[in-house]
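Reopening this one. Same input as before:
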Amino acid sequence: MAEKLPCALTLAGLDPGGGAGIAADLRAFTAAGVFGCAVTTLTTVQSTNGLRSARPLPADVIVEMAREVVKHQDVRAFKVGALGTIANVRAVAAFLKRHRDIPSVVDPVMIASRGSARLVDPKALAAMRGDLLAVATLVTPNVPEAEALTGLRIASLQDARIAAVKLCSMGARAAMVKGGHLAGSRAVDVVAFESGEVEEVSAERLPIRTRIHGGGCTFSSLIAGRLAQGDDLLDAIVWSKKTLQKALRNIVNVGGHLRVIVP
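Same output, byte for byte:
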């Protein structure tokens, strides 16, 4: 008999250049040892030279795709990326609420690494705070995203701790404020849990002097993949941090201004 693999399902945007979005998510799922499934939430005109435009799909189509996969396949974790519109945020939040037994990692993507187009309507922020965080097993904002969600200024590790705790108070069962935008010789991600516990996951800050594409997508999807494998949340985060760090030492040039990650 063929080996049965657990599935992880991403609901995220399509980057035709392959550096970010569902292409990055599927690479990460494979690295984590699970079968990757993907629901496209928006299409983009994008490459490693930047994001030109984004076109969200209708909310009912997104939910129909996700429902079909969950009905027939062994989905054990969700990853949520760019959603585009307030209707999509609310629809995906409602879908996750109906499947609270399956862990979900929410990466609250707002803008791309390069380019002026947005990946979510600013009007959707309230729905992200009020609906999506409430059903997230883990939310994984970088510093600018955490500032937008919490309204707090984050300039230090202590600020990141306060923001992570606030994100949990807004409904997330756990929140990781990623430290890539903070100063220091170490890249420290602050993880708060609904229990009140706060952990720091640290790694050497690598001397990367070029811009990278898809780092946030990859990190959150590695975590979702390990959750699908049955890992404890903190174990999944630590494993994913190590795997991402190894990939960052070997970033790939596929043309364009941005470099990509292959875990």
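So the earlier flakiness isn't reproducible anymore. For the record, The first helix runs from residue 21 to 32.
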